[in-house]
Amino acid sequence: MVGVSLKPYLIINPNEFVYVADTSRRGDKIAIARNTSNEVYICSSAYTVFKVSEPSKLLPEYLSLLFERAEFDRYARYNSWGSARETFDWQTFCDYEIELPPISIQQKYVDIYKAIHKNQQCYERGLNDLKLTCDAYIENLRHSMVSEEIGNYIVRKNDKNTDNKIKTVLGLSTSKEFRVPQSRVNKKDLEGYKIVNPFEFAFVPTTDTWKVLAFAINTYNEPIVVSPIYEVFSVCTEKLLPEYLALWLSREEFDRYARYHSWGSARENFSWEAMGEVQIPVPDIDVQQSIVDIYKAYNIRKEINEKLKAQLKDICPILIKGSIEEAKN
């Protein structure tokens, strides 16, 4: 931040908390975090920074578990007040009442959480290593092989849903996936929609709206239909695996390429001809399959990791309840 004075910024020491009082623009959650590192950070003076005044009675880590619960988010939203902006002010924050078990019981349940969190982080590090392996493999191909235009391996499709038999209509997202259309679609009138068969691609030519090329490969076991403004194509699978091509089109480098090669006045489009001119290395089909297999393993583990993180958050109210019940017995 060149030319910005950092003097008004607030200091966040290790084990201190910071939260944003404004809750009206953050959905159903309150933005709150604890500095879990050994570093000292700074934050905006609009935020509120606080610490546990008596750590011998309340562990900061235990307080974090309390804040992780959806119950606390609901409390914060319900007790936020204001006209233009609803805020959960400091005094109201301090009025929040908690049941406090003995410090030894707090520590026990904090240790349980830490053990689960550590396992999840170990899994995530392995996930990152797998992603690096996949990326390194692709980069090595890019530098060791002559690239070819994918136009030699793809075929433009324009099959329409003329009999209106296919009712699964999907749109495209910036995350390179099919999704439920954002606008209402009359499923009784899909004759003009384009068919995308399994392992065929669809992409949105317009790139100036999202700044990326929105595309997806049909990994479902049935045909779907998409808007007639989308481009649809199939791949000559004897020489090029659809999943391998999808890896290249998913790279940020390709998004930059597509934006640079998009043309138009009112709207910038990445044309079908431009797609055919995209160059990638096309190794032996067995090599392609090896790369695809690594990437599939990465995606499976990525999904598992997201579930682990969700479970980590879901377990917080269970741990709090367990600690309170143990203190009562």
UniProtKB/TrEMBL annotation:
<feature type="domain" description="Type I restriction modification DNA specificity">
    <location>
        <begin position="226"/>
        <end position="313"/>
    </location>
</feature>
<dbReference type="GO" id="GO:0004519">
    <property type="term" value="F:endonuclease activity"/>
</dbReference>
<protein>
    <submittedName>
        <fullName>Type I restriction endonuclease subunit S</fullName>
    </submittedName>
</protein>
<dbReference type="GO" id="GO:0009307">
    <property type="term" value="P:DNA restriction-modification system"/>
</dbReference>
<dbReference type="InterPro" id="IPR000055">
    <property type="entry name" value="Restrct_endonuc_typeI_TRD"/>
</dbReference>
<keyword id="KW-0540">Nuclease</keyword>
<feature type="domain" description="Type I restriction modification DNA specificity">
    <location>
        <begin position="13"/>
        <end position="118"/>
    </location>
</feature>
<dbReference type="GO" id="GO:0003677">
    <property type="term" value="F:DNA binding"/>
</dbReference>
<dbReference type="InterPro" id="IPR052021">
    <property type="entry name" value="Type-I_RS_S_subunit"/>
</dbReference>
<keyword id="KW-0255">Endonuclease</keyword>
<dbReference type="InterPro" id="IPR044946">
    <property type="entry name" value="Restrct_endonuc_typeI_TRD_sf"/>
</dbReference>
<keyword id="KW-0680">Restriction system</keyword>
<keyword id="KW-0378">Hydrolase</keyword>
<dbReference type="Pfam" id="PF01420">
    <property type="entry name" value="Methylase_S"/>
</dbReference>
<comment type="similarity">
    <text>Belongs to the type-I restriction system S methylase family.</text>
</comment>
<keyword id="KW-0238">DNA-binding</keyword>
